[in-house]
Amino acid sequence: MKTDAAIAVIGAGMAGAAAARRLRDAGAQVTLFEKSRGLGGRLATRRMEEGAFDHGAQFIRAKSERFRTMMEQWRAGGLVEPWSEDRFVGVPAMNAPVKALIGDIPVMNSFTVTGLAREESFWRILAENGAYDARFDAVLSAVPSPQARPILASAGWSPAALAEERYAPCWAAMLGYEDALDLPEFISVEDEAVAWIADNSSKPDRTGPGSCIVIHATPVWTRAHLESEAEEVLAILFMRFAGITGIMREPAFGAAHRWRHALVEKPLGETHLWNPGERLGACGDWCIGARIEAAFESGEALARAVIETL
After folding, report:
1. What is the largest CA-CA distance in the chain?
2. On the CB side of 153, how many CA atoms lie within 13 Å of its CA?
3. Global pTM value
4. Is 299 helix (H, G, I), strand (E, B) or coil?
5. What letter would DSSP give residue 60?
6. For the residues 274-287, what does the mean pLDDT come to?
7. pLDDT averaged over every residue in the chain
8. Concatenated DSSP letters for 91-113?
9. Measuring CA to CA, which residue among 107, 132, 134 is closest to residue 122?
């Protein structure tokens, strides 16, 4: 790959970070664009006075040799620690591995990409207030497929793989208690509304005297309440929590967060999408499956395809 290749990666979650790092190590000039203020996508941690809540992905598992190697490196660097059984978590927050992958790669935070525009043989990144002041040899989308679809369509590329719905939504509830609750670290639940309950205070490097509880609703229940107000969702999930655990006390803190694209239900079955003629690509966990490892593998696979092309 020519070392002066300029590549834009849209999305700074695990897939985008993995793609960006592989390309940067190959000599490309990479810029990441992220609509949120933070990095990591669903590897998210919300810090409050009551403690830290991992309201997205709860843990990371490694199956492939490549990802196990990465996990070993992250653990040696103090970026992940074991939590429960073969589950690892980022420290001090879930997005620590993503931050490590990105390193010194430039990131445009709070930058919502609305489309792409061709300029000679290059691509321009478009936002609501105009075009980003740089031209790119290639553009890679590392966001959920429903978000990638309009961006790539603006460039005249609409692969059928992006037309299918691949994600289930998820409502997440966060409950903060001033004292420690007597709960297991992670509870899988057979309930109409609640999929699982996690005590985030039991995770490594999570200091504080209280308990930070995260509840994820089931896809079916979330779809039925997708447009409900957060306060209503929080009240319902708290009552289900009380019924499941027997803990009736109201928390000192409560909040709900809606993930519209949370759980991959129908993966593509391919590691990535790449259009070498247009130099456009897409990657993410939606390509392989509902795992952080899948997002990492998809991002690296797309990066390898780009390197071979450029």
Report:
1. 64
2. 12
3. 0.94
4. helix
5. B
6. 97
7. 94
8. SSSTTHHHHHHHTTS-EETT--E
9. 134
pLDDT tens, 175-196? Answer: 999 988 999 999 999 999 999 9
Residue 48: predicted pLDDT: 80
What is the chain's length?
A: 310
**Percent helix, strand, coil in the chain (nearest 5)?**
30, 30, 40
With 90 as the cut, is the pLDDT of residue 86 above it?
no
Q: Which two tokens stand for residue 303?
A: 């990066």
β-bridge partners, 274: 281
Contact 281, 308 (CB under 8 A): no
> Residues 46-61: what's their mean pLDDT?
89
CA distance 274 to 262: 23
The H-or-E segment that residue 234 falls in is helix 230-245
- Residue owning tokens 């696979």: 301
Burial zone of 129 (CB within 10 Å; 0-12 exposed, 13-18 middle, 19+ buried): exposed
Contact present, 12 and 25 (Cβ < 8 Å):
no
Taking each helix axis from N to C end, the angle separating 292-309 and 14-25, rounded to the nearest 10 degrees, works out to 30
Tokens 């708290």 found at: 238
Cβ neighbour number for residue 92 with a 10 Å cutoff = 18
Sign (positive/negative) of CA torsion 270, 108, 151, 23? negative
Alpha carbon dihedral 22, 24, 26, 28, in 10-degree steps, equals 130
Does position 298 have pLDDT exceeding 90, yes or no?
Answer: yes
Q: CB under 8 Å to 81, separation ≥6 — which residues?
A: 75, 88, 89, 91, 204, 205
Whether residue 298 contacts residue 209, with contact meaning beta carbons closer than 8 Å, is answered with no
**How many angstroms separate the Cα of 114 from the Cα of each of 8, 154, 162?**
14, 9, 16
